[in-house]
Amino acid sequence: MSPAASPRGRASSTGYLSIGQVLARLTPEFTDLSASKLRYLEVQGIVTPLRTESGYRKFSPLDVDRLRTALTLQRDHYMPLARIRDYLDEQQGGAVAPPAPASIVTAPRRYRRDELLKAAAAPVALLNDAVRAGLIPATESYDDKALGVLRALVALDGHGIQPRHVRGVRQAAEREVALVESALAPLLRRMDAASRARAGELAPELLRRLDEVRTAFVHAALDRIVP
């Protein structure tokens, strides 16, 4: 649910926390957490904080539990946010201990075009624009990655950011993958199974490190814009 769709009200009930209070509670465990990342997790549907009449977010104890579980799954198991969100919703809020990765990794689901549009609450025109921009493949069925991209594009579109505007994000991702491929070239050139397996282990770790660097720069820039 996007911020604009979050419940609004006075949100003054006992136990509700401001962004600053949530950060104070969670950053000792998740040191890279920031206000901008909390807002991003809200856009991705991990939490739906209440809003005061002045527009300030107020997080419930349930929101904090969901955040802690989501951040743990991201950090320790590298789970995608779409899968984490589905898991939390199935657990009625996520106030549970993080599971082993195998317990939430299911057979990949495929979506027909109409199913994808419904799941993402997206208009047909937005999906068409995303395909033309190269953000989503032109295919007969779609996977969870395509659903996650389309959901994000729906949220961005609500703020006037269209698929053509974020084409550079895909290009930047491809450059990151090329950088990792170059770093792994010595292992990939070898034909033995051990070297191939080592490359398979290193690739997601290198991408995660690159993502951490990029995320840090983005959050620092965003914090200058929206303190």
Number of DSSP E strands = 4
Number of continuous helical runs? 10
Strand order of the largest sheet: 1-2
Radius of gyration of CA atoms, rounded to a whole number: 19 Å
SSE order:
HHEEHHEHHEHHHH
User: Percentage of helical residues?
Assistant: 55-70%
CATH class of the largest domain: Mainly Alpha
Distance between the termini: 22 Å
- Could you tell me the strand content as a percent range? under 5%
What kind of sheet is the major sheet?
A: 2 strands, antiparallel
Q: In the residues, how many domains can be counted?
A: 3
- Annotated CATH topology of the largest domain: Multidrug-efflux Transporter Regulator, Chain: A, Domain 2
Q: What is the mean pLDDT?
A: 82
| SSE class | mainly alpha
Question: Would you give an account of this structure?
Answer:
The protein is mainly α and 227 residues long. It has three domains: 3-103, Multidrug-efflux Transporter Regulator, Chain: A, Domain 2, CATH 1.10.1660.10; 108-166, Orthogonal Bundle (Multidrug-efflux Transporter Regulator, Chain: A, Domain 2), CATH 1.10.1660; 184-227. The chain is 57% helix and 4% strand. It has helices at 19-26, 35-43, 61-77, 81-90, 113-120, 124-132, 144-157, 167-183, 185-188, 193-225, and strands spanning 50-51, 57-58, 111-112, 141-142. The strands form two sheets. A two-stranded antiparallel ribbon has the order 1-2. A hairpin with a 5-residue loop joins β1 and β2 (57-58). α8 packs antiparallel against α10. The chain is globular and about 60 Å long.
